[in-house]
Design goal:
Mean pLDDT: 89
Order of helices and strands: HHEHHEHHEHHHHHHEHHEH
Structural class: alpha/beta
Oligomer: single chain
Largest sheet: 5 strands, parallel
Number of helices: 15
Low-confidence stretches: 15-26
Strand order of the largest sheet: 2-1-3-4-5
Number of strands: 5
Radius of gyration: 23 Å
Length: 367
């Protein structure tokens, strides 16, 4: 047989060619099939789970001053980049909103090295009580999904010391620089190929969901979406008066008893992740504004004494780093019932108020 007649050198050369071919094929599969389906919500519930690293690529090539919000859906529903850009006094400033639904500092810390490499002018880092609870209360399925999706878009230069904070069970979901390099692709391979072949055979593509999908980074809508994400219409407007009273007097009270609204004084991985991010940004001379978004007035009225004291202590610790300041809006009085989508997310009027508040803060920090 021809195979048997080959020299060891020829066999090694053949193996290298096969491996390189597989490498190129895997990269092409990820770039042209899997990643687009991550953005449009085909593979996961929402495309926002996948936008972080491509967003930083866009931010990095922007020659303007760049202000970037990092956090959960509180950030997503709180920051209107276009509004802030109009109100601040600094010309040529771009404001981006990278808030991700359900996220945790433990997950958001994965972008730290990438953020530093792209040198933003200011980071708006969300620090609310819901960011401080122990990981034991977090969904393991959510953590696995987010780590794998981040891995799908990460390059070797995106890894950093944050890897040392990952738990052993979570490290198995992270693609390595060399080992398990395409683990995330293997997770989504079957679903992506099945969807792709179905679309190919039927010559049709399911329409993108108006809220859950994310524009592709190559689209004209991408950068505007990073500044002004799509927001749902106000949830409380869908309720009648009786339902609103039940929501405020029963649902909100129940929500306030959950661990996410009862931070503790003990250190945990979410707190460590926040401190890691703040310390890294501070050491690299990137200013940070810690933003504590307001909560519904009824929720504030139902808080027990010192319920948020661990949150206040966390802000004090993080604010001690050089170049870090804090804006805690939980205790300010300008927020009305109509400013909120629900217990914790701002609606249109609330975003407009926050826009003015943040514009003033940004002016003071960057001027």
């Amino acid at each position: 047989m021809e195979f048997e007649n080959r020299s060891p050198g020829q066999l090694i050369q053949s193996i290298i060619v096969v491996l390189l071919t597989l490498l190129v094929a895997t990269q092409a599969l990820s770039l042209y099939i899997i990643q687009p389906m991550a953005y449009d919500g085909t593979l996961t519930r929402t495309g926002r789970y996948s936008l972080t690293f491509e967003a930083w690529n866009t931010i990095g090539i922007n020659e303007n001053e760049t202000v970037v919000g990092i956090g959960t859906s509180l950030t997503q529903y709180g920051i209107s980049g276009n509004c802030i850009e109009e109100k601040i006094e600094i010309n040529n400033t771009s404001v981006y909103n990278l808030g991700v639904p359900g996220s945790l500092p433990y997950i958001e810390m994965m972008q730290t090295t990438t953020a530093i490499a792209n040198n933003p002018s200011l980071i708006l880092l969300e620090v609310n009580p819901i960011n401080l609870y122990p990981l034991v209360y977090a969904s393991s399925e959510y953590l696995e999904m987010r780590i794998k999706l981040n891995s799908l878009f990460m390059n070797s230069g995106d890894y950093g010391d944050w890897v040392e904070l990952l738990r052993e069970q979570d490290m198995t979901h992270l693609d390595g620089v060399f080992s398990n390099r395409y683990g995330s692709e293997s997770t989504y391979f079957n679903s992506a190929i099945n969807e792709y072949l179905t679309n190919l055979l039927t010559d049709e593509r399911a329409s993108k969901h108006w809220y859950l999908s994310t524009p592709h980074p190559s689209s004209n809508e991408w950068e505007d979406y990073l500044k002004n994400p799509v927001w749902l219409p106000r949830y409380l407007d869908s309720l009648n008066q009786s339902e609103v009273e039940d929501y405020e007097n029963a649902t909100i009270v129940k929500e306030l008893k959950r661990p996410r609204y009862n931070p503790t004084v003990e250190m945990n991985l979410n707190k460590l992740a926040l401190e890691y991010m703040v310390q890294e940004f501070s050491e690299h001379k990137i200013p940070v504004l810690l933003v504590s978004y307001p909560i519904h007035p009824t929720a504030k009225s139902h808080l027990i004494d010192n319920q948020f004291e661990p949150h206040n202590n966390t802000l004090e610790i993080l604010s001690s780093y050089e170049g870090v300041s804090s804006l805690n809006m939980i205790w300010t009085d300008e927020w009305a019932h109509s400013d909120f989508y629900d217990i914790e997310h701002l609606d249109t009027s609330g975003r407009e108020k926050l826009c003015s508040v943040l514009a003033l803060e940004i002016n003071q920090i960057l001027n």
